[in-house]
Fold this protein.
Amino acid sequence: MSLKFRIPAGEKIVVNGAVLTNSSSKAMHFSLENDASIMRERDILLPENAETPLQNVYLFIQLMYIEPGSHEDHHKSFQDAAQIAFLSTTDNDERNLVFEVVGLVGEKNYYAALKLLQKHFKATLPPAEESAG
């Protein structure tokens, strides 16, 4: 079964590490017919925007997901970031989140780990930022 996407004009996506830009003035529709790592521009965290320990965890999972050729380097950085994120908080919910994310990464389920962190980030946004995003 294929995965169908609609990419608005000007938006970028990453497919297996390749950046694709919809350069037309109209939305692009396409179907992904096989397994691939895909991220929409709005879900990509740029290194300069990773400001918290959990955002650093997200960044390195994202890199493992979209750059599998550099997995070993990214995995080591992920391990360091996860340790820092765990040690930087005393909040049990955040510590449990780090444990869950580490488990998903151990299973190579990067997509689920990213979605879990996205859900956490959205839940912890102040109300004004949540409605703007």
Notes: The helical segments are 53-66, 71-87, 92-106, 110-123, 127-132. The chain has two domains: 3-42, 47-127. The longest helix spans residues 71-87.
